[in-house]
Amino acid sequence: MFAINTFIYSYVFCKTEMIPNKLSRLGLFASCMIMFAAILALFGTFEQISIWGILLAFPVAIYEFTLAIYLIVKGFQTEKIV
Q1: Residue 79 phi/psi, 5° resolution?
Q2: Burial letters for 4-32: b for 16+ Cβ neighbours within 10 Å, e otherwise?
Q3: Which of the ends of the chain has fewer CB neighbours closer than 10 A, N or C?
Q4: Angle between helices 2-16 and 51-73 (to 10 degrees)
């Protein structure tokens, strides 16, 4: 659910341009990576808490931290909202 939620709001941010496009695309990429990690862990390719799980989850951590800092400092670009 975390990956699906991240994908949905990153997609909305990408379409509405409320945050920079590069940041929303990072979120789309990161959510796909965490979905891939979850699927691999589900089929037993590796343990969820392993070096591979951490490496595949790292982009979403970077995205979440960056998004939080960006929203605290700059906020949404409300002039882009129609």
Answers
A1: -70, -15
A2: eebbeebeebbeeebbeeeebebbbebbb
A3: C
A4: 40
* Distance of alpha carbon 31 from alpha carbon 23, whole angstroms: 12
pTM listed for this prediction: 0.84
**Which token pair is 58?**
């790292």
Query: What are the extents of the domains in the chain?
Result: 2-80
Ordered mean pLDDT values, 10 residues apiece, the chain (82 residues): 93 91 95 92 86 90 95 79 59
Q: Are 13 and 31 in contact (CB under 8 A)?
A: no
| Owner of token pair 């409320």 | 18
CB 34 within 8 A of CB 57: yes
Give the per-residue pLDDT at 9.
93
